[in-house]
Amino acid sequence: MTHFSWYVDGSIVGLYLVATMVVGIMVRKYVGKVEHFLVAGREMDVYLGIASLAATEFGVVTCMYTAQNGYDKGFAGATPGILSAAAMLLVGLTGFCIKPLRDAGVMTIPELFQNRFGPRIRWLAGVVIVLGGLLNMGVFLRTGGEFLLLVCGFPLENAGAAPHTLGGFVGSHYLEIAMTVLLLTVVVYTILGGMLSVLVTEFVQFVVMSIGLIAVTVLILASSDIGWGRLVAAVEAKHGAGGFNPFVHPDMGWPYVVFNALLCTAGMVTWMTMIQRLLAAKDTRTGRKIYTRTSFFFVCRFLVPGIWGIAALAVLTPEMVGGNSLYAMPKFLGAFVPMGLMGILLSAMIAADMSTDSSYMLTWGSVIYNDILAPFRRKPWSEKKGLFWNRSIVAFIGIFLLVYGLWYPLKGDLWTYLGVTGTIYLSSMSVLLVACCYWKRANNWGAAAAIIFGAAIPVAYLVLELVWKVQGVDSAGQVVVKSVVREAVGPYYSGIATYVAAGAAMVIGSLLKPTAPPQPGTEPASTAGPPAFGEARSRKADEAGGPPRA
Amino acid sequence: MGMWDIDPVVRHWFWWAVTAACVLWYSTVTVYVAIKGVSDIRRMLRRLSDAQGGSSAADEGRDD
Fold it and tell me: What is the pLDDT of residue A83?
């Protein structure tokens, strides 16, 4: 039973959607160059940057996963949030990787790699980033739609709808139709205004999203039916000490903490959607301030929905939740949040979804344009042509998302597949970035080796997990099929090994590249490939063949 | 049982403190960023508008 009302809550949501669309389209007139479209002309200041970064990195799917963490692991499930905040604060304070990245004046990470490792590595890095990013994003639309339907009380599948009629089609495809309309709204203003529209709409979305998150959380904590005491009691009963301490939780422990520390740190310096905010900042100092001042948000990002998940644990019975703990939180909210606030909550979650979708489409689109299409831009393109291609790429990404992620639902273990694509991207890109910024000896041999090992280990783990299985007996005496590699190694050790292997491959590969002997009367040739990015900037326009930059 | 019951607060003071910090920080930052962000947007759009007004025909580049 849900408190959703079409008149009250539906009106609030409708008003919010119209306002967002109007705001997003209004800034279109300020877009005159590719640089405006991709990085807002590098005019973004601190507070807009904070709002944008927070809105981008909090989507409905994030809310679902983090709430599921709260349901399945208690308060200890917020550990990745604490690790992310610590990593972001350190990176912001020290400027680790982000200072040289912003100082270089590039528009994407692979563009930075070209100067040290050459155009082939730039192109390969672009492919890894785009594949990882698009495959990652492919699951967002459906999962976000499921959240909205469950909170509003709609069935995920309407088996009673009359087939072969328009009404039957609509009745059995609520989710697909709703998310298609939502995505089309986002695509329109993203195509028209690029990063400018994204920033301004994200500002609105941040405010709406924050109001919804805070209101619901305060309602849960202050509720006489729930409150802090009942949350704690539920976690103690279900998870014991492990619900408060990740090191003693049976499904976590130190491998979980170490793996997530690596993952979070790598994400802070290489996840392209975050880096794009850094690159859009008006200068390096502003970019670092955005990082330090947004860092604590990542604790909220995990703990706030985590509280909602724990509330679901306290209130719902296992029978009410069903077989999938991912749906516990939306089912709880549908019954708990009163009418009126439900409209604000839905607007908040739609805002979260729209901000993430628009940012992600633009980010992966910028890498496709700037890096994957770089070999086709040996002669610089006009701004008009560049804008046309950027807009077209965003449109194609929107079509891909609709087809791949929504109307053609993925089967199988989505979360393992997300973990694999995430680790392929982050392990190799973080190693390349650190080496590019701080190790003069790094070269294209090491870079290629790091990319290969960063992909090989997670893919091997995934394949072995699927094909190498044995029959066993569980504690209840039931026969179960278990994955050998998951039991013997587990995803966390595999993830840690990937980072170590990618790092080792970078070092060994770089050292293996022969050093060309110096010619008499000349400087010794460097084994580091193209000169470091700071030295090459003056030749970049000739070598890169990219668009002219302001 | 509410947020101010002592026993569950004392038993798990760390998570209580982090939760309270989240609610307080997020509320404060939302208001502060909402106010300051409006100024940032105005400044950003004004700078872009000024830059566009001052740019020359050379910005259009060549057509391929």
Answer: 94
Tell whether A245 lies on the interface with B, counting CB pairs under 8 A: no
pLDDT for position A548: 31
Domain ranges of chain A: 8-29+45-409
| Structural domain that includes position B40 | 27-52
Q: How confident is the model at residue B55 (pLDDT cuts 50, 70, 90)?
A: low
**Interchain pair B48, A211: CB under 8 A:** no
Contact B2 A224 (CB under 8 A): yes
Q: With contact defined as beta carbons under 8 Å apart, do A38 and A390 qualify?
A: yes
- What is the reported pLDDT for A475? 67
**Contact list, A212 vs chain B (CB under 8 Å):** none
Between positions 82 and 101 of A, the ones with CB within 8 A of B are 82
| Total structural domains within chain B | 1
3-state helix, strand, coil in chain B (%, to 5): 80, 0, 20
Most confident of A196-200, A255-259, A476-480: A255-259
- The pLDDT, as a whole number, for residue A414 is 54
- Closest by Cα among A150, A480, A490 to A334: A150
Other Cβ atoms within 10 Å of A352 Cβ, number: 29
Phi, psi of A189 (to 5 degrees): -75, -25
- Candidates B5, B7, B11, B33, partner chain A, best to mutate (most A CBs within 10 A): B33
What's the full length of chain A, in residues? 550
Q: Compute the Cα dihedral for A502, A506, A511, A512 and give only its sign.
A: positive
The pLDDT value given to residue A415? 59
Flag whether residue A211 sits within 8 Å of chain B, measured between CB atoms.
Answer: yes
Give domain status of residue B47, yes or no: yes
Nearest partner of B15 among A327, A228, A384, judged by Cα: A228
Residue B46 domain flag: yes
Residues of A in contact with B58 (CB under 8 A): none
In the predicted model, what is the mean pLDDT of chain A? 81
- Closest partner residue to A32 (CB to CB) among B11, B40, B52 is B52
Rounded Cα distance between A15 and A347, Å, is 9
Measured between CA atoms, the residue of chain B closest to residue A35 is B48
For A8-29+45-409, which CATH superfamily applies? Sodium/glucose cotransporter (1.20.1730.10)
